[in-house]
Amino acid sequence: MAARRTLSPEEMAERLVSGDRRMAARVITMAENRSEKIGDLMKLIYPHTGKAMVIGLTGAGGSGKSTLIDRLIGRFRQRDMTVGVIAVDPSSPFSGGAILGDRIRFQKHSIDDGVFIRSMGSRGYLGGLARAASDVVRIIEALGQDVIIVETLGAGQDEVDVFHVAQTCLLLLTPGMGDDIQAMKAGIMEIAHLIVLNKADLDGAEACLRSLEATLHMGLGDKQDGWIPRILPTVAAGVREGQVQGIEELFEAILAHQMYLRESRAMDQLQAARVEQELGLIFKDELEKIVFAGLKGTGRKRDYIEAIMAGRNDPYSVVEEVLREFFIGRNSGERSS
Amino acid sequence: MAARRTLSPEEMAERLVSGDRRMAARVITMAENRSEKIGDLMKLIYPHTGKAMVIGLTGAGGSGKSTLIDRLIGRFRQRDMTVGVIAVDPSSPFSGGAILGDRIRFQKHSIDDGVFIRSMGSRGYLGGLARAASDVVRIIEALGQDVIIVETLGAGQDEVDVFHVAQTCLLLLTPGMGDDIQAMKAGIMEIAHLIVLNKADLDGAEACLRSLEATLHMGLGDKQDGWIPRILPTVAAGVREGQVQGIEELFEAILAHQMYLRESRAMDQLQAARVEQELGLIFKDELEKIVFAGLKGTGRKRDYIEAIMAGRNDPYSVVEEVLREFFIGRNSGERSS
Q: Which pLDDT score is estimated for A318?
């Protein structure tokens, strides 16, 4: 086998933007590992992003996320739209990778060239999951996918941050889920545009629908932009044709919400909010690198830790001291000139 | 009712350290809300911290965390040790508070003066959950509790960060849990010292124990400090005496691990790692405040967002530009003097 030629960021960007799926996978790995080239590459591909329909899907394990996504992919493909899926899985902080194989989860579409699927671990990213996921969405946008579905378990601040990248947010529930889900709902409902009650053929589905509707009637889910969330019962799993229910209605509801965003100009606000979040994530990350690198090289960190453990100092005072030196020290240096 | 007198940080610290539980609750709220005084307060109480036995307990919803903690509290109280519990609950990013009431969860011990219980939401903290939780553990240590139990669901990077504060880490599993739990296990097993199989009277417990033991036999859970994780079956729930099982063995195993830490001097390394993490969390948080404040005031942020949305710029270049100005600009300012 010939050795892989080292490509310039320009060459890589060109291949990615022209629809090279293997290049997309490679660039995503570079983003996840924070390779040195990734900054230049992201600048090059950025103008080719921002046009996809980004759908967020969150729900606990066992709610049927993969099956539902599989159905949605099928519907989008029928309309000849290309699809990207980013699945955030719980994983080892050490392995860095996702545990469930992409191909196993979405078997039917794994050989379809119009579908690009990528799993991400929920831990172990240098700049945090949200920063990594934000880059990955941009990369799949640059690849040219029309629709991107971002799947998370919806637990923890970092996953909520990931969710913010989505324009249309789906919350997936099932009848008879436990207290944890009820608790989670309270937080997620505030960002969900469509609430999907999957496995709606199970016992308790009717009662669950009524309770969800009652919650929405109190206006608890209403969005600032005027969108009133809808509840959609589905049965995503099923071998025979008649068993699967509600997918068409869900598909239409997603398109309706996208239409609403475009007509109400809420889409512009969403894009601005996304850029703002992106700026914040990149900023934080780069700053940390600069300051931590500064501290590390000097060996002062070890001295500080020893002083704190010996009771001669505390971390709050140490941080104050270092920051004062770093910022105010430089200011006064300027003033004295 | 008389108005609450404004206390100085010195007065508050004194009351907290002398065991005033109401003051502890108040200081925790200040830490969670990042009140202005909290920095000074934390500096004052810091020398009174670092002596507690800190136990982490993680497990999915329904694994019986609260019941098990209830049993453990009972055992520690029998030995006349005071206990603090920090329970991290999924919650609304908006309400900020925890959903399940502390008193409801640990009814038996809620009126015991030797037990201090606090719930924290898993989202909505300005500097992140890990930063807030780190402060809360220090505050409960300053209150003088001998043992602190930190309970989390174990999902997401922020909860894993919280877990790092613990010296003895317990992973709670139950027989027959789904794929999500299996996946989670892979990540958490690497940091768990004791693996508790709760509800060990259920079907499938034997098979589950065997599979866990096989995993450990491969050395997958072994720690760098030489500790080999143990598996302990328990039945924490039960009204009659004979129904509850394995609590005594678990209690002894916790004490044995603590003894191991002290004798192997691994405790010193743990304390150093905790201080290092703390430094990092405080650092990051304070840095963000400085830079975001700087950007916000100028109205430049809006200009940048507009330029990015119009395709005239991208977030990666913007961050580079601002940072260059912030750091290199100041350096060259100094140099020119």
A: 87
Look at strands B115-121 and B168-173 and give their pairing: unpaired
Architecture label for domain B47-265: 3-Layer(aba) Sandwich (3.40)
Architecture of the domain made up of A50-265: 3-Layer(aba) Sandwich (3.40)
Q: Give B165 to chain A, closest Cα distance, Å.
A: 15
Pairing of strands B168-173, B53-58: parallel
Return residues 129-188 of B near A (CB < 8 Å).
Answer: 129, 153, 155-160, 178-181, 183-184, 186-187
**Which of B52, B53, B31 shows the shortest CA–CA distance to B42?**
B31
- Count CB atoms within 10 A of the CB of residue B179: 12
Q: What share of chain A is helix, strand, coil (3-state, %, to 5)?
A: 55, 10, 35
Cα-Cα-Cα-Cα dihedral sign, residues A232, A233, A235, A240: negative
ipTM: 0.73
Query: A183 is written with which tokens?
Result: 């608790």
Q: What percent of chain A has pLDDT over 90?
A: 33
Whether the CB of A333 is below 8 Å from some CB of chain B: the reply is yes
B337 interfaces chain A, CB cutoff of 8 Å: yes
Q: Which of A30, A36, A225 is nearest to A138 (CA)?
A: A30
User: How many H-runs (helices) and E-runs (strands) does chain B carry?
Assistant: 14, 7
Distance, CA of B82 to chain centre: 19
Q: How many residues does chain A have?
A: 337
Shortest CB distance from A305 goes to which of B43, B275, B331? B275
Q: Taking 90 as the threshold, does the pLDDT of residue A137 lie above it?
A: yes
Report d(CA A27, CA A88) in Å as an integer: 18
User: Can you tell me the distance from the alpha carbon of B47 to that of B37, in angstroms, rounded to the nearest whole number?
Assistant: 17
Q: Which of residues 61-120 of A touch B (CB under 8 A)?
A: 61-62, 89-95, 99-100
Polymer length in residues for chain B: 337
Provide the b/e sequence for A290-327 (b: ≥16 CB within 10 Å). Answer: ebeeebeeeeebeebbeebeeeebbbbbbbeebbeebb
- Minimal CA separation from B199 to chain A, in Å: 17
Q: What angle do CA B97, B103, B104 make, to 5 degrees?
A: 95
Distances (CA, A) of B16 to A250, B8, B138: 55, 12, 11
Q: What is the pLDDT of residue B146?
A: 97
The Cα B57–Cα B152 span in angstroms is 6
Task: Say if CB A50 and CB A139 are below 8 A apart.
Answer: no
**Substitution target from A43, A281, A319 for chain B, most B beta carbons within 10 A:** A319
Domain residue ranges of chain B, discontinuous segments joined by +: 47-265, 282-335
pLDDT level of residue A337 (50, 70, 90 thresholds): very low
Evaluate whether A86 touches A150 at the Cβ level (below 8 Å): yes
Average pLDDT of the residues of chain B: 80
Question: Which residues of chain B lie closer than 8 angstroms to A291, CB-CB?
Answer: 283, 287
Is residue A147 within 8 A of residue A82, CB to CB? The reply is yes
Among B11, B329, B279, B138, residue whose Cα is nearest residue A320 = B279
Name the residue of chain B whose CA is nearest to A49's CA: B311
- The alpha-carbon gap from A62 to the nearest alpha carbon of chain B, in Å, equals 8
Cβ contacts of B160 on chain A, cutoff 8 Å: 93, 123
Q: What is the DSSP letter of A245?
A: B
> Is the four-CA dihedral A322, A328, A332, A333 of positive or negative sign?
positive
> Which DSSP symbol is given to B325?
I
Among A157, A272, A337, whose Cβ lies nearest the Cβ of B305? A272
